[in-house]
Amino acid sequence: MKLEAIDRVDKLTREEFQKNYYIPQKPVIFRSFSESWKARDLWTYDFFKQDAGDVKVDVFGSWTKNHPTKISRTPQQVMPFKEYLSLIESGPTEYRLFLFDLFKHKPEYRRHFNFPDVASGWVKTHPFLFFGGQDSDVRLHFDIDLSNVFLTQFEGKKHVVLFSPDQSHLLYKQPFSSHSNVDMRHPDYEKFPAISKLHGFEGDISRGDTLFMPSAYWHYIYYTTSGFSMALRTLNSSYVKKARAAYNVLVMKTVDDLLSKISDKKWSDYKLRKAKETAEKSL
Question: Could you tell me if 168 and 245 are in contact, meaning their C-beta atoms sit under 8 angstroms apart?
């Protein structure tokens, strides 16, 4: 496996970003994306504890223990937001919040940030927050809506590994899924020999950094420390990818959820077997 460093820059104008990254669909880490946001300094663990601490949140454990082949997952616990924040502050833990829509509870928080003019076509209805404890991680996957993602870090540090869509055939993609069962923290080349042929990107994001992840990019994220980030998205301009995104959301996910309910183990075993067969045909 060969991983090259993700480009890192301080400032990008719209023209520079469009020419060098957005149009060619190349990842980059940059700091100017959120430089005008009130949220950049305001949003802290203490702020959320005091202002939104009673909001109930769904807490998820390690993906390796909780339906690693399902798109939809079941939370391990439900607790007040302030209790969860105290948990991830206290030391390493596998527990995460993902696709957390805090703004339906606190719509005024939307005034703490804007949608920068580096791109157009923003999905303004659902900005999502992601929280994790030190040593937690996010399973290798791509976003099923095929949007372009701008992930801004507010607290802590994450290590990110990315693969472009043209590497999908080597990533043990499960059928009717946007996920892989490869553990990128401890890659097992004997169990998953095709990953030795991978070419991708890696980098770290810390407070104030924004990672641009182009449409359909596979990503694995490891929380080096506890922390949180927010994802803003733009719609893909390709009509082909828009159609594919609609299929992923309306058909692929529906089929996966249904077959998981009907015969969970048989469907899971089939997906893992087919993922292995497909990836290793390329060898």
Answer: no
For residue 236, what pLDDT band results from cuts at 50, 70 and 90?
Answer: confident
Choose among 163, 100, 146, 125: nearest CA to 248: 146
Buried (b) or exposed (e) across 216-243, using 16+ Cβ within 10 A?
bbbbbbbbeebbbbbbbbbbbeeeebee
Q: Which of 94, 106, 123, 3 is nearest to 47 (CA)?
A: 106
- Which amino acid type is present at position 209? D
For residues 132 and 88, the answer to whether their CB atoms sit within 8 Å is yes
The structural domains of the chain, with segments of one domain joined by +, span 2-281
Token pair for 134: 């030190």
Please classify residue 194 by burial: count the beta carbons closer than 10 Å to its beta carbon, then call 0-12 exposed, 13-18 middle and 19+ buried. Answer: buried
Which CATH fold would you assign to the domain 2-281? Jelly Rolls (2.60.120)
Q: Name the token pair of 13.
A: 């104008």
pLDDT attached to residue 187: 93
Tell me the three state secondary structure of residue 143: coil
Question: What pLDDT is stored for residue 65 in this prediction?
Answer: 65
